[in-house]
Amino acid sequence: MPTNHRAKLATIKRFDQLIAYLRDEMGWPIARDSFEQVEDLFYDFTAEELGIDPKTAAKIQEIKRLRPLSPRQPWGIFFVKFEPKRLPVVALRRILSQVALKKRASANSAERAAWAADDLLFVSNYGEGDERQISFAHFSGAKDGHDLPTLKVLGWDNRDTALHLDAVARELTQHLAWPDDHADADNWRKRWRAAFTLGHREVVTTSKELSIRLAELARNIRDRIKTAIAIETEKGPLTKLMKAFKEALVHDLDADSFADMYAQTVAYGLLSARIADPHKKTADDFAAHMRTNPFLRELMETFLKVGGRRGKAGGPGIDFDELGVSDVVELLDSANMEAVVRDFGDRNRDEDPVMHFYELFLSEYNKRLKVQRGVFYTPQPVVSYIVRSVHELLQTEFGLSDGLADTTTWGEMLQKIPGLTLPPLTDDPGEKRAIASDEPFVQILDLATGTATFLVEVIDVIYRTLESKWKQQRLTDVQLRAAWNDYVLKHLLPRLHGFELMMAPYAIAHMKIGLKLAETGYRFAADERARIYLTNALEPKVRQLSQTGFDALAHEAAAVNEIKWYKRFTVLIGNPPYSASISEPEWLLRRLDDWKQGLNETKSDLNREEWKFLRLAQHYCITAGIGIVGVIINRDFLDGIVKRRMREHLERKRLSGY
User: Fold this and answer.
1) Domain boundaries, the chain
2) Which residues contact 581 (CB under 8 A, 6 or more apart)?
3) What mean pLDDT value characterizes the chain?
């Protein structure tokens, strides 16, 4: 009668039950005296050292090594018994990563080789009461040898579904059964390691399939982060990084939002690097695509390091990928990215794949988050129309012949427009100081940058404008390239700004700006950056910045605070988020009251995010005394009854809608 592996696995809660299963059903030649107390392993560490809350960290009660059952056995097999306490898998991974070998002079070379990370198999027993659990864990090495190994866990407990138990039984019986040929160590390694690797899948060739697979892996990373934060102390690596973000940049950040930020940034950032250069591998080229922002480059490295990818080399434990980043790298490197991009192009010829992929990815990753944050793809023709319209209005209404490319100063504009005065240095009430007269008049801000679609279009319009002008002046190609590189450094980057709250679009925006400028022949130097900042555009400037332990975050916070204090914008563009109220800064709500005066309606949607962004754009124009707003906005603006005070206020402040 065939063995009902599902039923047997469901009853296994102790080592003696597991040993009987391994011996009777899987052919392991285990005798009663097969175990020895281990003195060769180093596992003297505390929960605090791992950043785990001692209240939730189960301690190791004992570790026993299974004596070699075959003279050519390549595996070191260890049974690890934890005290009866709840132990999430993420904590199990972190603890086992610290169980390292003592370096003994007497250990012979054969034994040291057999105990490499790839040859360790941990069988762990942990959990409380009826939820006591057995699991197998193995440090699965990266295929190319460059990334850190991932500690992959194969396990079950009494709450596992039948389908999962079937999957565990299949892996155990197909891969972890004792081999018939004990002498073939290479094949033995290959077979047992296969139990901890994803099964063969077809190579990804379509944008839809890639988005679904990538979103699945990103959700896994997100959930592991949330679990890790739940068991960490205040000194845990992920908790410390989350607190630094909250203090420096995103003040309403919580664990769920941080987990989303991390997972999206790593998963989609790595995807963006592959799309940008489909012929190269992902992880090692990632930093190269962050050249528009030293902060972002350092931040990406920190994300990967905290996640374990670049680990703690030289420490007592085994460097490993705690959060599953290597799974994303493996997926992307094995995907036929040329075919994916080609598939996308066949379906969406006029759309930017980086930008569209993000919306597709976010829909698969968390559709609710996509709607909540108001993330929607902006069609390229709409973006082009708005940017070109702003460009032409600067030429016709403001007398600036180069439009968005114009470098006319405020001092020169005072001569052009009677009654125009220099804007105040800050927007504080009663501010007496004014900005310098040599400040450029055309200062551009995308209020909700997203993936930088509008700013990339601005660069394109500016480049085409100047290229046409310089060709009329008969500049050679060499002279034109030199003039453009000089212009970008002195007149483009200092006038082009963006605010973005979500980490993944922020990273993508920097990459796209770099790619666009590279397309025009410009190359970023090491100390230059695009002026796109990670911030909530609706939050006000602050007088005193919080101190964080992370220099890069502190520098970014200081840079965006400086912009909010002293930069006077005259061109406001973008596609603000369309959603119910999320952020409600007091200073902006007071200004929204201007649009609510005298309204008798009991229901009003004026606190929606898109109206806040429109009011913010108006505030910037009022502070500057002049300006153009070119944003996508709810059509209710045109004839909505509740919007009548809004329209009156905009007209009274002499702002026209285009």
Assistant:
1) 5-196, 207-372
2) 607, 608, 609, 612
3) 78
